[in-house]
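Q: What would this chain look like folded?
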Amino acid sequence: MKAILLLFFICSLSVTIQAQADSLKWVNEINEQVWKPFTAHLISGDKAAFASVHSKEITRVQIDDGILLDYQKYFPVDTAQKQGRRKGKFSFELRFDKRISNGVSAWESGFYKGEFMQEGKPPHVYYGRFFVFLRKENGTWKIWVDADTGKDATEENFSKAIPIQ
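A: My prediction, written as structure tokens:
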């Protein structure tokens, strides 16, 4: 009986280790294909490039306002035009508390921090909580559902979450 339990434990452990290795591979793919460009395009203000990391079937959920947006409403026609530069410096960082993937679709949640700095003014810092469902489209990860809220979005929770590697 002990031998059977030991064998079961070893098999379970090897499946878990393989799942973690696969999950890490997908996390790295998602970081490179979605989150690094997402952050860079958000900071630069390039709306068309920002839209490109989202599926054309995106559902954007503004939880606190009770609003659902499709692609056309989230990225109106003028998205093709590059937004002008902000008068100041903007930074944005994502941190994760849950990342689950099977290689085709993924669920991720976490917190973000935005900071806007203008000369002669104190920085404006804000936090948010996000929930995202991603899927691969033609071999590339895309954001399919993007929801966020201010609930539980604090500096403390942001600090506890895991940054992009």
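The helical segments are 2-44, 47-51, 71-74, 155-160.
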